[in-house]
Amino acid sequence: MTKLSIITINLNNADGLKKTIESIINQTFTNYEYIIIDGNSTDESVSIIKQHSEKINYWVSEPDAGIYNAMNKGVIKATGEYCLFLNSGDYLINSNILDVVFHSKNPNEDFVYGNIMRLNKNGKEYEHKAPEKLTFFTFYFSSSICHQAIFYKRDLFQKYGLYNEDNRIASDWEFNTLVIIKHNCTTRYLNEPISFFEKNNLSANEEMNEMERQKALRKHFDEKTLADYEYFKQLRQTPIVSYNLELKSDFLKATVLFYLKVLVKIQLLFSKK
Fold first, then answer.
1. Which part of the chain is the Glycosyltransferase 2-like domain (predicted)?
2. What are 180-237's pLDDT values in tens digits?
């Protein structure tokens, strides 16, 4: 059985696509299939795909209905045990990282995730560490886990559905919250940088992100969860949390969040008396 399906979506990003493809086909790990979903690009993207077609198991270039529609097309074509979404411009951190994940770590959990590398405002690379434990609290206050560092068991999409194509930003968050918090799928954190993430501007639209998250919560969760979300939303506006969100140090962020959790637990304890 194919161990991994790597899915790349692309639209008019030929240079980024080339970088992504090369990072995949140069892997020492070979038990994968590679799928590219191109949104009818008008630049050199299709030409680049054709240049590497012998290393690509499936590709298509046609109009789509957005990012999540393209990602869903990839899931539908996938046959691997796990899926990894590595969009054009993103790339695997080195040539043996997939060997590290699937041979050294040998995971079997539903949701396996690691860290990403990215650039700070000064253009310097740094490792952004994902939270070791995934709770509703950490989903709200921690930076979202990037799909470029997540290996999903493909049957999660068969059990719980594909990405919500009505969203423009928050469908990753919706799907992750659904399978981990509501359905309690098994998870495993790998303290390894998996890929380099080329941030896009779409995810910076906080107002749309908030709206789509609240809609997802109303769809999948009960009133108690919604109440917690509103409480966390108020906490987010407090000086200590606002300060924490601006911190660049993952260690300091973790420290502030730890003490914030303690304060929340104390408040909840006294509120029950």
1. 5-160
2. 999 999 999 999 999 998 765 455 577 888 889 888 888 888 776 667 667 666 666 6
Joined together, the tokens standing for residue 125 give: 């690379």
Rounded CA gap, 107 and 113, in Å? 10
The residue behind tokens 């529609």 is 69
pLDDT tens by residue, 113-170:
999 999 877 888 889 889 888 887 777 766 568 899 999 999 999 999 999 999 999 9
pLDDT in tens, 128-139: 889 888 887 777
